[in-house]
Amino acid sequence: MRRFTRSLITLVLGAGTIALVGGCQSDDSLAARTPLAPAAAKEIPTFPGKDHFAPQITNPYMNFAPGRKFTYQSETDAGTEINVVEVTNLTETILDVATTVIHDQVFLNGHLSEDTLDWMAQDLDGNVWYFGEDTKEYDENGQVTTTAGSWRAGVNGNPGILMLADPEVGLRYKQEDSPDNAEDMAKIMNLCVPVEVAYGDFECALQTAEWSLVESGPRDFKYYVSGVGLVLELSGRGSQRGRTELTAIN
User: Does residue 216 fall inside a structural domain?
Assistant: First the structure.
């Protein structure tokens, strides 16, 4: 996965600022690594097995009801990038679990540049697991240039956790577990950060830091609002920090 995000950081993004409820604050300030509480005692969930999964994803930080479509926008040196994430009614059986198929497309200046199917499922405790992705990147002529980053749990990887049922500051977990191919990590940084994006103003967003073990670069920071989903991503550092924000939910 860096899927909502991986495609959004393949280009050098323009700088931006973020307005907070009750005042303004720079991207760098908002994305600063919040001092963490002492190491959390809570254990990260282990994969529960095929008989412990729910039929749909109901975790409020994902907000993945079937048929829902999220639209994100960022401005890059190459132009305007639109990321459309659709929760389909399709399922894909992986490790005997009926995963939900998420269709994730990226358009650069109106042309399709990346097309991905993500496979996700929620366990009975509310944790959302990631079972892999089938991804393709395209050139300006509509030709596939690479499928790098594609993987499937049980074939060349293991399920990872996209969102915890009960986030706690300091918890660190693996989102993608395809050795030497896709190994993304996340850490809970803050449980309540005010944030403003094109879609609306929110007083309390969950903040995570995310990074790759196989790709160098700075951490990305994501902001999730309960009952809404992912609303903002900040990537890069300083004047090159990129801003990708939610613009619509259909």
Answer: yes
